[in-house]
Amino acid sequence: MAGGLVLLLVIVAILGAGVAVGLSRRKRNPFTNQQFVNQWEQQMRALEASLGWRFVAEDQGFQERVPQIGRMLEADRSRVKFQLVGHWRGAPVLAVEVVFRTDNVVTSEYRTYAVVVVPRPMPGPWVLISPRNDSVWGLFEQFVETGDPVFDGRYEVRRRNPAFASALLGSGLTQALLQDPRANGVAIAFDEHNLAAAVPGPLLQAPLAHLADLVLDLAGRVPWQALPRG
């Protein structure tokens, strides 16, 4: 009899713990709260109206468009949360909210980022320029120093082709990034076929118009024809 009572108490405790965990997870996911969902939808509609972009559910191929950033999703497409498509200053734009893992393998911390993608005027080798104090970008290659102490104090550079990266940075790009307040805290990816700007935080809080202007301005100032091709 006593043994049966103990077993019953253990089962009740396990069920209670399961319910508690379920409620805890539900509490942590704001999209289970209808009031939050309604507010989020209103904010997204306002964002669409202000930019002239539209929210889309279909996969827009973010990982394929910007492979050097897309690979940080570690082949998990569910970490692309939201997508907006449209045009800005005549160029097609994709904006996404994604979740990246930091390079701290001990804690497995995840962070939300907003990324704006525009076409690159000329295809070529990739270069990734990221804020030095943002550990998200160190999952793969080690960064290299440019020799500019001010720039190296603020940014890390990862690249495929050293000659191309040197020519790109030496075209005035380093000074442009240092002097442009829109670039503070922004990672810039010169991917093979597209350019992207990424900042920490969700889409609804990101300065999407400023990011789009920034990458388009950078694209317009780079002397693409004069850079090494391979």
| Biggest sheet strand line-up | 1-2-3-4-8-7-5-6
Count of discrete alpha- or pi-helical segments spanning 4 or more residues: 7
User: Would you identify the regions where 5 or more consecutive residues have pLDDT less than 50?
Assistant: 5-27
Radius of gyration: 22 Å
Can you give the helix content as a percent range? Answer: 25-40%
- First-residue to last-residue Cα separation: 80 Å
Q: What oligomeric state best describes the polypeptide chains here? A: single chain
N-to-C series of helices and strands: HHEHHEEEEHEHEEH
Question: How many β strands by DSSP?
Answer: 8
As a percent range, the share of strand residues is 15-25%
Overall pLDDT: 85
> Helix/strand/pairing class, anyone?
alpha+beta
Largest sheet: 8 strands, antiparallel
What global shape is seen? globular
Overall number of domains? 1
